[in-house]
Amino acid sequence: MLDKETRDRIIALIHKEVVPAIGCTEPMAVALATARAKEALGSLPESIDVLLSANILKNAMGVGIPGTGMIGLPIAVALGATIGRSEYQLEVLRDLTPESLAEGKLYMQQHNINIKQKEGIAEKLYIEITCHAADGKQSKAIISGSHTRFIYIENADGKVELEDNCDFPTSSEEDDIRLNLKMVHEFATEAPLNEIMFILQTKDYNMKAAQNAIEGNYGHNLGKTIDRPLAKGIFGNSIFSHIIAKTASACDARMGGAMIPVMSNSGSGNQGICATNPVVVYAIENENTEEELVRALTLSHLTAIYIKQSLGKLSALCGCVVASIGSSCGITYLMGGDYQRVCNSVKNMIANLTGMICDGAKPSCALKISSGVSTAILSALLSMEGKCVTSAEGIIDDDVDKSIHNLTSIGADAMRATDDMVLNIMTHKGC
User: Fold this and answer.
1) Angstrom distance (rounded) from CA 298 to CA 304
2) 337-391, pLDDT tens digit by residue?
3) How much is the pTM?
């Protein structure tokens, strides 16, 4: 078993990366930065300048803003200024009411919100908000490196309240423990149960989001579609179809703007859903014990966190690839698989899903999540049958950690040009 100090550092990392969020994390992070800049100004801004990295722009353009029936950044910025509270972190808009929504819409009509791409920065997660008062004073707040990390705050009197002297932080900060898959598996399967029971909160949040979608009408209704007669005639009434339906439903609700929190993973609610719901549904229908579920969820979420350490919070690679690898590991464990079987599931996943691009947060993310989850189940089944993609095939290495780093090097480095092209296409439609 890992020593207590190591376990404590891993638990701290999970608590840092697995947190509640309402709505897509990119526009919510922009709303958070706006709320903090407004607080530093001390009054409602007369105008707001928003400078964002390309990846933030991409992920915030087409996604529903919770409780508004609207998409995109302008309403997120307006609500961040009018009702946002920075102490709520990624639940910054949780005080939203019909009355405050009307106030936010009016603010959009009567005030200038200028949104542009920040040029000349390497950091993929960067948000800079400048709030201007009627008397000429201004305040500024900058988030960089992770969705809630402020690196600069300046108030209306020109006083710098916070300044991080480090260069733009990476997603793997120096004080975080560096993981490998063996450590992840050992922690998940051997840590004292009382130390990791908190992971069940992911089930409470993300399965509730799925139920909310089934009762409502969000996005493309993919989860509900899978439950309809035509789909049941194809998929049957199976664990497979139930897993896809419950996972896609939660994504439908989140991307469609449901005013309900989900438990995110590494800054993404969709990744949190994808790392949670497939594991939960399988455990329930396979009649696994609560302890087995706790350990499987821990394995799933921590695997996703590990992969994101080298991939980064935002990249050209769709986050469902990362989270689906985690859920495949969790399902393999629930099937009775040992560490070698888990490694094989990871390799099977990487051999299949590598290269799926991220073209922003939007309702159709439910389709990509369904693809990822389908592959997760297939990879786990192959692994349990003793089948594994070999090092003679593609980017797979005999060493599982090397295979993971092959994946992340493609997503973080080789696909940069793809990321630029995707954003260019998204911002020039109809031109």
Assistant:
1) 10
2) 999 999 999 999 999 988 899 998 888 999 999 999 999 999 999 999 999 999 9
3) 0.90
Q: Specify whether the CB–CB gap between 238 and 334 falls below 8 A.
A: no
Phi, psi of 292 (to 5 degrees): -60, -40
pLDDT digits (tens, 9 = 90+) for 287-315: 999 999 999 999 999 999 999 999 988 88
pLDDT tens-place string over residues 10-58? 999 999 999 998 888 999 999 999 999 999 999 999 999 999 999 999 8
Asked if 301 and 275 touch (Cβ cutoff 8 Å), the reply is yes
